[in-house]
Design goal:
The complex is a heterodimer of chains A (about 250) and B (about 650). Chain A has about 250 residues and is an alpha+beta fold. Chain A is built from 8 helices and 7 strands; from the N terminus they run ββαβββββααααααα. Among the domains of chain B are: about 140 residues, Flavocytochrome C3, Chain A, domain 1 (Alpha-Beta Complex), CATH 3.90.700.10; about 120 residues, Fumarate reductase/succinate dehydrogenase flavoprotein-like, C-terminal domain (Methane Monooxygenase Hydroxylase, Chain G, domain 1, Up-down Bundle), CATH 1.20.58.100. The chains are: A alpha+beta (about 250), B alpha+beta (about 650). The complex binds flavin-adenine dinucleotide, iron/sulfur cluster (SF4) and FE2/S2 (inorganic) cluster. FE2/S2 (inorganic) cluster (FES) binds next to loops of chain A.
């Protein structure tokens, strides 16, 4: 099939950037979206042009590297699907496809479709862990975990840290991402001793990094490729309030 | 040169505990004065960096992705082994050890493998304490499943995303140390050279992938945890960025390369479907617990699978291997699929696929149970192929998946270059000629959490008086100069073909002649073909843009240049090993019924290759494998 691509091109952080239009004449419907991008890049190299830079690695929907806004939607039109798992059979012959980077205050563009998501890293470093040193763990089955809670914790832990939730949100909020991590640990007995500091520290860094507040639009859940539920945001709010209260009591 | 594996003396089961109680230690005050560089933040690297940071060393960790959490380990699906014996089904440390040695077709070291089995139980404890959400039973206790090549149920899992959850656990431990300032993390940085001074590893040269800046980092020890090199085949189940550069550069600076030709071809992958294809997708081996593998009994059968009656189907694994059935080890399952397809009985458009059928399992357990077990895998399959595995059998074909070969290391996980370590998939150590399922995650975390933190002290205790390593020495000047020259040379070729063009070409030679079946003629041809690819690459590759910016084409070019050289060594290793063992199948050496025929008299050794120079082939050194506890037999899964 034939496609017209409108792709965001930006040389570096300080460049203003803009759209360029490219024509692809022979796209296989079985190819993945990123394989289509490979074909575009091969074409650009052959034409002595600079290929489009984009982040990707696993191409299996699990590493969270890929990050494109396709026709206005983070990771494109398919629900619960990352850019790398999107296949060209979901587009039609002659279509114009617009491709942009994830945009957010806290995700500056580095080049073309590549953004800097290190703000996510700093949030995790603030408290996204249980403080258990290597070698100090008790026998695993001494910590039984209710199966339902374990499943719920898994659902939260399935977040791949891609940032689509932030890109989808008009406020550029990271509440879904932070809520997922806080929830995973809040649902497991292992996470309880540090639950207050954890949520307070992570939220503080989230605010420092310039992510916006949550106004309950639900856009994050709708665009999240792992279908992380907004219930995680509710739990985050609850954890936060309860942590605040217990800190005040002390 | 004699290779000393430094296996401690004493009975097998006591070696590691004796070692631990006699190994030299570095006291806490001195640890602060010692710098360690860890390249890689996958399971092996993140667990090592975090544990070394906790001990008080000053650690710098590097990865090429934008986050440590994106290392290729994230993609592992099926599970992690541990000899917990929670099922009471006869498992033990010894049995895990024995299964691993046998699964590896008797080409790994007893001492290392036994240690791996011993520490496997600690890994599960550690991960659970970190909050890894493993699958559980209604009792709240941990659940298990079984994997190929074994008869017990010892695999722990977190749905079909075990690697993700284990890596996020290690990543959280790493983040904690970043906060404590014991680990400094460098993302989007690629190691492009090691620095050796007076025979010891003293640092690395890295390229900042965003700015193109070339940096020097000095340390008392360098740990490489950079993963496998399966992408030498271009198409593999590995992530796109997986590469050999770090270990190849180390090899060219003196580290021996162990068993480079030992590659694992995984039996259950989605078949190749087009020219544009960039990678292959694995369907977890756990599917073989319930899926039945079959092809038609007749050649060229183009009927739909539903239209082929039961009696005209050949469930060839169940037929040939009644006691293990669909759960034979990977090398055997892969070769059997190739045989069926070579025999003209392959299925699908290309004829290069076999069925993996869940109809019976769905009938027996119901769709819900199957969905709970494999839901996300079925979904993934449907996304890629557009077909629903609940109603149509999956189509699968073998694909390159894992590399057992890697840098040669001793019991301490140190290469033959003092101060340079290799952990995880990038070393050669524990899996012999074939790795069992769910054992790579185990090895990566064993190395990083429980082995290296002990063994590295043995060397570093001799470094406490060294003082800070300086990065302005002639050795650093020289290493940096090499890197700059290589990049300049690549940028100045300004040829006509893209990097991928050469990578594909190399991959095709490797797959055709150094893949699932190999022979002397093909390998000899491959060596010549790869030499030609190398000449062509270095005179005609085209890299747009400049070296001082984010330039993915340049990143790929640096990696492919190394893959080309590695490919040649793999073929040479495969050619010299005149036997079949595990994943290395030389068609000249097989039993009458087509199984791998080992030659223990001549080849019960690790082939460790020493780099000589640009125009001189590597020299082979042998580490003889000594088997004190197990008796070498022809592997049988019948
Ligand atoms: C699809 C798939 C499924 C799998 N499933 C299982 C399973 O169920 N069970 C199992 O046991 N095993 C499984 N494996 C194998 C297992 O995942 C890997 O062997 C293991 O994760 C490797 O871990 P590692 O830490 O050694 O390397 P990796 O996780 O590959 O990490 C390598 C690290 O090194 C860094 N790096 C590499 N080169 C450089 C460089 N030059 N400079 C800087 N940094 C560099 C990378 O950024 C990364 O951080 C699977 C593999 C695949 C491909
Ligand atoms: S919550 Fe969803 S969208 Fe947000 S980072 Fe996680 S996986 Fe991506
Ligand atoms: S490339 Fe890994 S999730 Fe898309």
């Amino acid at each position: 099939m034939r496609l017209t691509l409108k792709v965001w091109r930006q040389k570096n952080k300080s460049d203003k950037g803009g759209f360029e239009t490219y024509q692809l004449n022979n796209v296989d419907t079985h190819a993945s979206f990123l394989e289509m991008m490979d074909v575009l890049n091969e074409q650009l190299v052959n034409e002595n042009k600079i290929p489009v830079a984009f982040d990707h690695d696993c191409r299996e929907g699990i590493c969270g590297a890929c990050s494109m806004v396709i026709n206005g939607r983070p990771h494109g039109p398919l629900k619960g699907t990352t850019t790398c798992q999107l296949h060209m059979r979901h587009f039609h012959d002659g279509e114009t496809v617009t491709i942009e980077p994830f945009r957010a205050n806290a995700f500056p563009v580095l080049k073309d479709l590549v953004v800097d998501r290190s703000s996510f890293e700093r949030i995790q470093q603030a408290g996204g862990y249980i403080s258990v040193g290597t070698g100090s763990a008790p026998e695993a089955n001494n910590i039984p975990v209710n199966k339902v809670d374990a499943e719920k914790a898994f659902d939260s832990a399935a977040c791949i840290g891609c940032g689509a939730c932030v890109a989808a949100c008009k406020n550029g909020s990271a509440m879904l991402f932070v809520g997922a991590k806080v929830s995973q640990y809040a649902l497991l007995p292992q996470g309880h001793p540090e639950r207050n500091e954890r949520v307070l520290n992570m939220v503080a860094v989230m605010d420092e990094e310039g992510f916006g507040g949550c106004t309950n639009t639900g856009a994050c859940e709708a665009e999240c490729p792992k279908e992380i539920s907004v219930a995680n945001i509710m739990r985050l709010n609850r954890e936060y309030i309860s942590a605040k209260l217990s800190v005040e009591k002390e | 040169m004699a290779l000393d594996s430094k296996i401690p003396s004493g009975p097998l089961g006591e070696k590691w505990s004796r070692y631990k109680s006699s190994v030299k230690l570095v006291n806490p005050a001195n640890k602060k004065k010692i710098d360690i560089i860890v390249i890689g933040t996958g399971l092996a690297g993140a667990s090592a960096a975090a544990s070394l940071g906790e001990l008080g060393y000053k650690v710098k960790a590097f990865c090429f992705q934008d986050s440590a959490r994106r290392a290729h380990s994230i993609a592992a699906q099926g599970g992690i082994n541990a000899a917990k014996n929670y099922r009471n089904d006869g498992d033990s440390v010894y049995r895990l050890f024995y299964d691993t040695i046998k699964g590896g077709d008797y080409r790994s070291r007893e001492g290392n493998v036994h240690r791996l089995a011993e520490v496997s139980v600690n890994i599960i404890d550690q991960c659970v304490a970190q909050g890894v959400p493993f699958a559980r039973e209604y009792s709240g206790l941990l659940d298990n499943r079984s994997f190929g090549g074994v008869q017990v149920s010892r695999t722990f899992y977190a749905r079909g995303q075990t690697g993700q959850q284990l890596l996020l656990g290690a990543y959280s431990a790493l983040n904690r140390q970043v906060k404590e300032k014991s680990v400094e993390l460098f993302t989007r940085h690629e190691m492009v050279e090691v620095v050796i001074e007076n025979g010891k590893a003293r640092g690395v040269i890295v390229r900042d992938l965003v700015t193109g800046e070339i940096q020097r980092h000095a340390a008392h020890a360098v740990v490489l945890a950079t993963g496998g090199y399966g992408n030498v085949f271009f198409l593999s189940t590995n992530a796109m960025g997986c590469n050999t550069t770090a270990i190849w550069k180390a090899h060219k600076k003196g580290a021996f390369f162990g068993n480079p030709c030992f590659t694992q071809i995984h039996p259950t992958c989605i078949p190749v479907h087009g020219e544009y294809q960039s990678k292959l997708t694995l369907m977890s081996e756990s599917l073989r617990n319930d899926g039945r593998v079959w092809v038609s009994k007749s050649k060229g059968d183009k009927r739909k699978p539903q239209d082929i009656p039961e009696e005209e189907r050949d469930y060839y694994l169940e037929r040939k291997y009644p006691s293990f059935g669909n759960l034979v080890p990977r090398d055997i399952a892969s070769r059997a699929a190739k045989e069926a397809c070579d025999d003209g009985r392959g299925v699908g458009e290309t004829g290069m696929a076999v069925y993996l059928d869940f109809a019976d399992a769905i009938k027996k357990y119901g769709k819900d149970t199957i969905s709970a077990r494999y839901g996300n895998l079925f979904e993934m399959y449907e996304k890629i192929t557009g077909e629903d595995p609940y109603t149509t059998p999956m189509m699968i074909y073998p694909a390159v998946h894992y590399t057992m070969g890697g840098l040669w290391v001793d019991y301490n996980l140190m290469t033959n270059v003092p101060g340079m370590y290799a952990t995880g998939e990038c070393n050669f150590s524990d899996h012999g000629a074939n790795r069992l399922g769910a054992s790579a995650l185990m090895q990566g975390l064993a190395d990083g959490y429980f082995v290296l933190p002990y063994t590295i002290g043995d060397y570093l205790s001799g470094e406490i008086l060294t003082g800070k390593i300086k990065s302005d020495s002639p050795a650093f000047d020289e290493a940096e100069k090499n890197v700059r020259e290589q990049i300049e040379k690549l940028m100045n070729i300004k040829g006509t073909k893209s990097v991928d063009y050469y990578h594909r070409k190399l991959g095709k030679v490797m797959w055709d002649k150094c893949g699932m079946a190999r022979n002397a003629k093909g390998l000899t041809e491959a060596i010549e073909e790869i030499k030609r690819i190398k000449t062509e690459f270095w005179s005609d590759v085209k890299i747009p843009g400049t070296a001082n910016e984010l330039n993915p084409e340049l990143e790929k070019a640096i990696r492919v240049a190394d893959f080309i050289e590695l490919g040649e060594l793999m073929c040479r290793d495969a050619l010299h090993r005149e036997e079949s063992c595990g994943g290395h199948f030389r068609s000249e050496f097989q039993t009458p019924d087509g199984e791998a025929l080992r030659n223990d008299d001549k080849f019960a050794y690790v082939g460790a290759w020493e780099y000589k120079s640009e125009n001189q082939p590597q020299e082979l050194h042998k580490e003889e494998l000594v088997f004190e506890s197990v008796h070498l037999t022809q592997r049988s899964y019948k």
